[in-house]
Write a structure and sequence with these properties.
Two copies of one chain form a homodimer.
Chain A: H1 8-26, E1 31-32, H2 34-41, H3 45-53, E2 59-60, E3 64-66, H4 67-77, E4 84-89, H5 93-101, E5 109-116, E6 125-126, E7 129-133, H6 137-144, E8 148-151, H7 155-167, E9 172-175, E10 188-191, H8 194-206
Parallel strand pairs in A: 4-5, 4-8, 5-7, 8-9, 9-10
Antiparallel strand pairs in A: 1-3, 2-3, 6-7
Helix pairs in contact in A: 1-4, 2-3
């Protein structure tokens, strides 16, 4: 259970395990061999064993993995049961798509503030939240103290918002802006580069 | 140069190398040590050496990597210079965000068809392309023969479109629908699960 030492590359694979195990659970599957799991997930069985051994392992020789125990453990590692507040800055098409279509509650995230500058968007409501002008963000953030922020702003507008949010104690940024930020040591930025997987797809089709 | 054997996990990291090397090139940097590159990219230097050794390696002991040569090689491996046509099915907020904000040309992708069922969207133009009704897709696809498709439809509407496109020779799918498809052997599906990186962010903030 030396969780502090789990490499980030392994952590990045956990949500995928979590999704597959959740589907197995729903379909009533109670246990699965690393071989079966590997075939479903298209990773090698030895990779799975190696990944899951990072936090104690759950497989028993000849039995395989207990699906529910493993699911709950990953849920616990990813602390999905603890709800955490988040602001969204940038309610354009991408921000709107995320706010409306992502199951934030299931991910342990509660949206408490939405911000934009577009007068056609400011004042509208989305998922029960009124979209406020970004100029009001400082007041809202001081009051609601979210730990996370989702940045779906144009690249050029991202940096001042990032700095404002950091100065008010936001500790994690989910960044879609393609702006590379240099965060203070206690702040985490998770950049999403959608085009990376498109490049991978192209490679796989044309190789 | 045994490229056929490059593991997919390495391929998935190439777009990131490509982005970082592109930025280095822009800033006039001609060579870089694996140590410097590793610090910028937050991966270990040995990982970088191992990854790049998969296709012959480019580093010279004591010299480091030639930035432009490495950039061009990755461009070549990812075949970014060959343009490939793509259809987009689903012009809701996510589809619109992708069509308008992603630099497809730079990724070697040309959008040649956009499809939706929403009467408010069908008939409008985006990036010079008229959004057509999904019922017209079969006719368009037979004529334009795209190799790739981007699926930004609701989960429940994805499967029939996927089957239609496969039957017309589409070989690669960039799938945002959370619908797990079982593709024929010569068809590749690259699933994008946006929530995976949000879970990783949560973990990194709360660990």
């Amino acid at each position: 259970m030396k969780r502090e030492n789990v490499p980030l590359t392994v952590i990045r694979r956990l949500p995928r395990y979590y999704r597959y195990l959740g589907e197995l659970l729903k379909s009533g599957c109670m246990r699965i061999s690393s071989k079966e799991l590997s075939e479903r997930m298209h990773v090698t069985a030895s990779q799975i064993r190696q990944d899951l051994n990072c936090f104690g392992g759950f497989g028993q020789q000849g039995y395989g993995y207990n699906v529910e125990a493993l699911y709950r453990e990953i849920e616990d590692i990813l602390s999905i049961n603890e709800t955490c507040d988040a602001f969204v800055a940038g309610i354009g098409h991408l921000g709107t798509a995320l706010v409306n279509h992502l199951d934030f509650a299931h991910l342990g995230v509660r949206l408490t503030g939405l911000f934009d500058i577009n007068p056609e968007v400011v004042g509208t409501r989305m998922q029960g939240i009124r979209v406020a002008h970004i100029d009001e963000a400082a007041e809202h953030i001081a009051r609601l103290k979210p730990r996370l922020a989702i940045l779906t702003l144009p690249k050029s507008e991202t940096l001042p918002v990032f700095r404002l949010f950091v100065s008010h104690g936001v500790k994690g940024f989910w960044n879609f802006s393609n702006m590379e930020m240099v965060p203070p040591e206690d702040v985490v930025v998770e950049n999403v580069h959608l085009s990376d997987s498109l490049m991978t797809l192209r490679y796989r089709v044309f190789q």
